[in-house]
Design brief:
The chain is an all-beta fold. The strands form 4 sheets. Strands 9-6-12-13 form a 4-stranded mixed beta sheet, with no helix packed on it. It has a 4-stranded antiparallel beta sheet with strand order 8-7-10-11, with no helix packed on it. It has 2 domains: 66 residues, no CATH class; 101 residues, Immunoglobulin-like (Sandwich), CATH 2.60.40. The structure holds calcium ion (2 copies).
Length: 191
């Protein structure tokens, strides 16, 4: 696992993040599965043959639990003239962090073949408390939609050709397994 250090170089965080695993991986998805704003990771492990079996791995991102979390914005974009999932749309998010202007450019796509990530755009914003501008370029019509001064840490829906931004109420899901003593392993479970 490599972490992009402010666009300058990559840090190997395999051990620090607890990602190392001695099995072949088959697919990886980056997705905010518990809907708390940070991206979690799901990895399909093992090969296609039964002898190659291995449990899949879910890495819940614990980043928001210490109260110093960075800000984020998740965009759910829907086409009306273009395809409904807005695949192929290019989004530019502009904001300022510590006096430095930043542009984040994303395309709407699933990110792969074996490992697909959500179509919604989960964008980390560092310490920026708001987004100055969101530009959505629709290649089918050649039109660009622009939204200004958007507050962070929320899910927003954007509809092609609609000048409104729609905040979405998306509940946080607790992925942690119960530690209750009532939890028992299935009878056929083998260690
Ligand atoms: Ca998350
Ligand atoms: Ca989290």
């Amino acid at each position: 696992m490599f972490r992009n250090k402010e666009g300058e170089f990559f840090q190997d965080v395999t051990t620090a993040g607890g990602f190392g695993n001695i099995q072949k991986g088959h697919a990886v998805s980056f997705a905010d599965l518990d809907q708390d704003g940070d991206q979690d990771i799901y990895v399909v492990m093992g090969g296609a043959n039964s002898g190659d079996m291995y449990p899949n791995l879910l890495f819940e991102n614990p980043y928001d639990r210490d109260g110093t979390a960075n800000n984020w914005l998740t965009l759910v974009i829907e086409g009306t003239i273009s395809n409904k999932k807005a695949i192929g749309v290019r989004v530019t998010v502009t904001y300022e962090e510590n006096g430095k202007a930043r542009n984040i450019v994303r395309d709407v796509n699933s990110g792969g073949s074996f490992g697909c990530s959500p179509f919604r755009l989960e964008i980390g914003l560092g310490k920026a408390s708001f987004v100055e501008r969101i530009e959505i370029f629709w290649p089918v019509t050649g039109k660009t939609q622009t939204f200004k001064n958007v507050s962070t840490n929320q899910f927003m829906k954007i509809i092609e050709g609609d000048p409104e931004l729609y905040p979405l109420k998306i509940p946080v899901i607790d992925l942690r397994l119960s530690t209750s003593s009532e939890y028992t392993l299935p009878k056929d479970h083998v260690h």
